[in-house]
Design a protein that fits this description.
This protein has 151 residues and is mainly alpha-helical. 68% of the residues lie in helices and 7% in strands. The chain has helices spanning 3-7, 17-36, 43-54, 60-67, 71-83, 105-129, 131-150, and strands at 87-91, 99-103. β1 and β2 form a beta hairpin. GO terms for molecular function: DNA-binding transcription factor activity.
Length: 151
């Protein structure tokens, strides 16, 4: 047995909860991207728009922390959405070097269309699981998030 064999990870890693969460996340993200593509939107852009819609006036740095991505990734997406007229930057009322992000009317319309797509994906999941399992899944995922935050 080589030293590498002693340090290898057993195949049971595929049965871990975190691996199951990741596989589910990949599947959902892939479906979101596939279904949003005809609207000219990526799942990451939807996430950014829904975040700004929920909390208008976020800064790029706040958004990056909230989405757990780099400020550069947010800046790149903001620039694309701004070019499309879906997002605008406004001066922060107290910090002259900071800009707040706000949806435009076009951004709200695009978000509305994209959200209908996402709701369709969520409905499909809920239909397949049934109301009881869907509620259990949501409760378990909330619990997982709480446990991980506490760790």
């Amino acid at each position: 047995m080589t030293k590498d064999d002693e340090r290898s990870i057993p195949a049971e890693h595929l049965t871990r909860v975190t691996w199951a969460l990741r596989r589910a996340e990949w599947a959902v993200q892939a479906r979101k991207d596939q279904r949003l593509r005809p609207l000219g939107m990526a799942a990451a852009q939807y996430t950014l728009l829904i975040s700004v819609n929920t909390d208008p006036g976020l800064t790029g740095a706040e958004l990056a922390r909230r989405l757990n991505v780099t400020p550069q990734a947010v800046a790149s997406q903001v620039a694309r959405l701004e070019e499309r007229g879906q997002l605008e930057r406004r001066p922060h009322p107290r910090h002259r070097h900071v800009q707040e992000l706000h949806l435009t009317d076009a951004g709200r319309a695009s978000l509305h269309d994209a959200d209908a797509v996402i709701v369709g994906i969520e409905q499909r999941i809920a239909e397949k699981l049934g109301p009881k399992k869907a509620a259990q899944l949501r409760a378990l995922l909330d619990e997982v998030a709480d446990v991980v935050r506490e760790a």
